[in-house]
Amino acid sequence: LSKRYIGLEHNVWTEFTTLAVQHNAVNLGQGFIDYEPPQYFLDIYDETVKEHNKFLHQYTRGFGHRRLVEAISNVYSLYFNRKIDPFKEILIAGGAYPSLFNAIHSIINPGDEVILIEPFFDCYEPMVRSAGGIVRCIPLRPKPESLKQDISSSSDWILDKNELELMFNSNTRLIILNTPNNPLGKVFTREELEHIASLCQKYNVICISDEVYEWITYDNKKHIRIGTLPNMWQRTLTIGSAGKTFSATGLKLGWTIGPENLIRLNQIVHQHTVYLCPTLSQEVVARCFEYELKRLNSSECYFNSVSKEFIEKRNQFAQVLKECGMKPIVPDGSYFMLADFSSFVNDEQFQSDENDKKDFKFIRYLIKEKQLAAIPVSAFYTKNHQYLGENYIRFCFAKHPETLDKATNILRKLK
Ligand code: PMP
Ligand code: GLN
């Protein structure tokens, strides 16, 4: 194994997705919907596949299929309040994963410091480390009074402003932001983003903003793009995902939007790794964006209606967790929910590997003995901070009512 990857052998997704399949578990682990995407998406998908004469079975433009970058430019220019150049300010990659990889690997040199906000989507750390970067972590901390409540909110988790500033220094090159956040579901407020933005400017730091859950927010919480704040366009790379946007994770397309000079750096990594992404998938997503562009301001637009599809699931599932004795943290965005299970179980019940964190042990027990899969939250922290996450597990509630019923029955019988 190349030295760059030594120490990065483990991955929570490969481990727990495999275990869930082996034990035929009800899967509230990996984040994907287990029912059909919206009907208009399926119609466009079917139509596109049938158009053999359009040469969608051949290569297309390397930095993004023309129709797709134009559609993304037309939609996002409205949200960024500027004309986004489809060819110079957008790059298409094979999912938000490679978009993140391109961004991190095109900017980081060995020894550069990167600030991550815990809990963070787990791939950020290995991507930074394999680029030779040094991870500096700052945890979101729950307000003490929220810990006493049976049900709390993702907005109770906040950054200490002074602690955040102490993370920045002359070696800091990047900060990676994720709003709405996975796994917590926190939607960063304008004030929080303004503080981060001011530090980026003061210390000349670039911000990668992972916004794959941009359309999934609840209770009138507004998703704010840090790249739209004053003086932030020049130093922000905003990343989105077709899989998350259209509830079809198998599309595996991601986009990066940002200033020409930074997108150019991303293109250089991309042209020497995958070079171009599947044409068919790009054409489908282009047509979906064109379709939504015509109804962006209507409640029918999927970007506006998708949260309504999930909010009932969120509310019901929070009640279920509470009734069975866990303490849910109700998310303001995304389709994940954390639950504190610490008062719920007795450690002795599920001894596995001694070195395991409490949450890893609990999830192994849940999958193997109870056929229910979720994700241990310490996986979203760096090693020294894992103790901050080990009382929590993450559930994905973007599931068919039958799946949620099955999970509910298992949870009710657990106590
Ligand atoms: N970022 C976050 C926060 C995610 O949750 C995910 C998982 N979908 C990704 C990036 C990767 O997305 P994709 O499936 O488009 O590669
Ligand atoms: N982003 C999804 C999640 O958090 C999927 C992760 C993955 O496929 N590795 O569950």
UniProtKB/TrEMBL annotation:
InterPro entries: Aminotransferase_I/II_large, Kynurenine-oxoglutarate_AT, PyrdxlP-dep_Trfase, PyrdxlP-dep_Trfase_major, PyrdxlP-dep_Trfase_small. Its cofactor is pyridoxal 5'-phosphate. It holds the Pfam family Aminotran_1_2. Pathway: Amino-acid degradation; L-kynurenine degradation; kynurenate from L-kynurenine: step 1/2. One of its GO terms (molecular function) is pyridoxal phosphate binding. Coiled coil: none annotated. CDD domains: AAT_like. Keywords: Aminotransferase, Pyridoxal phosphate, Transferase. The keyword ATP-binding does not apply. Residues 26-407 form the Aminotransferase class I/classII large domain. GO terms for cellular component: mitochondrion. GO terms for biological process: L-kynurenine catabolic process. It comes from the Eukaryota. The keyword Transferase applies. Homodimer. Belongs to the class-I pyridoxal-phosphate-dependent aminotransferase family. This is Aminotransferase class I/classII large domain-containing protein. It comes from Rotaria sordida.
